[in-house]
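<instruction>
Derive structure tokens from the sequence
<data>
Labelled lines for chain and fold
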Amino acid sequence: MDRWLNPLVRKAEHEWQQLCDAYLPIRVKGSIWRYSRKRLRGDLSQGWKLHVSATILSACAVLRLIAPYLKRRGIWFKAPKSLAELHKLNSGIYYGFSQVGKFVTVYPQSAEAAAAIASELHALTAKFTAPMVPYDNALRNRSCVYYRYGSFSIRLKTTFRKKRVLAIARPDGKLVPDSRGPRAAVPHWLTDPFQSVRSQAALEVETPLETDYTGYEALTQRGRGGIYQARDVSSMPRKLCVIKEGRRYGETDWLGRDGFFRIKREAEVLRLTGAAGVPRVLRTFRANGCYYLVTERIAGKSLQQVLASRQRMSTRRMLDYCAQMAKIVADIHAAGWAWRDCKPDNFLVEKNHKLRALDFEGACRLDETDPPWGATPGYSRPRRSWDSVSPEAMDLYALGTSIMQLNREDRIPNQSGCSLQARDQETKLTSTLVQSDPTPAQSLIQKATFSACNSNSYRVTYFFLEFERRRRLGIAVSKGTGSREIKQKQKERKSVEVSQRSLMESVEQPNDVHEQNTRDFQFDLPFWISAEMPQT
């Protein structure tokens, strides 16, 4: 899939850069924005902002239509320096949820000019669809044009809750925070100049959002949709539930898949999988152009939080978690699906230490070949190898990486989030991991851990055997420098050697692996300490 997708992305980016060179020549060092011109002395410091929304698929076409109109009239405007930055804006997680949909920002010189420009921009972009801009007012129903009153200058700031924030001036001259929140698009001291051209949205019939659920609490919020906890008042007794929202055109990717598509796909996966390790679907419905999935609420905390808590975990508990992870993945595969987002953060640990899997928006059929839209770095192979890797193999790689992460003594991600700090202590990943579950998950554990180590079964087996040998002999690893101070506490027994040789002989060794990787069997620094661990 990437073989034709990558050229498509490169072509679009090249076209975008050409448009930027023609209409957005001003670059600002360290900024994601490009501007149509430099700021002039007569430009306003605050006023009515216009935002034109677009997806990465429509961005070039939209700018090609509106940029000539804006440039001819000398109107100041800006847009992202690349389509990759636009995708980040629309995700709502890199620059904030309030930035979703803010593709082109226009700075009119007056309220009257803003209303006229908005009407013209709406006419030029009427055929396009785009994500909504949070907290802005839409010019018209299903319009790509949004507006709000706000600051035009980053120099206009005030102190709010001990932080310096952007500000706007009231009529009396006092600076107040430039709020990007609900019902803040039109300050209370101003009259909405767009009211005459703004059409009222058609009133929709009441949806389950208003009639069946109450007490909403936003758990997460991003471009493709939110996740909310609410109380279901349509059933007795009234129970807490989780509502996942899939927004139309939210975080549209290069294949045209948006939040609506992803939540609808997740509902299908949960219903068809029917495994005990996934949430139970209560209902699905559509409202306000979005797709909603309602599932049972599962109390607990993520396995990643457990790993980061520094709580001591017994070997038995650790092996049980590994077996449960493998069982859940095996059940998903048995139902004909690939998860493609297997990681400790997506396993919820209940009070009884049972694991439940969450987040199936990126799942696909085992026989599908579409690239994953949001695979977590560290839990997926390098992007260049996606063409040759099946969805099942991607799950095995992620499961193996998760198992190896679970078996580390130091389970705390470092501040950069790029790797795990390895404390030089004895780890507990042994051959008993494979023997801890007699179910089909046993072979899945073997495959997954092999896959996580570059699919090199010979090296991984040697790695496991070295682990087991050092554990039984009480070989310690010194802290700090990477050099080891090895102390043998007891002699190696002959039975251990026999068991090691038998395990080595029982593993299938590809003919081309042994020769080309023999040089890798240097254990001056243990693999599990030197290897970079997943980004979380």
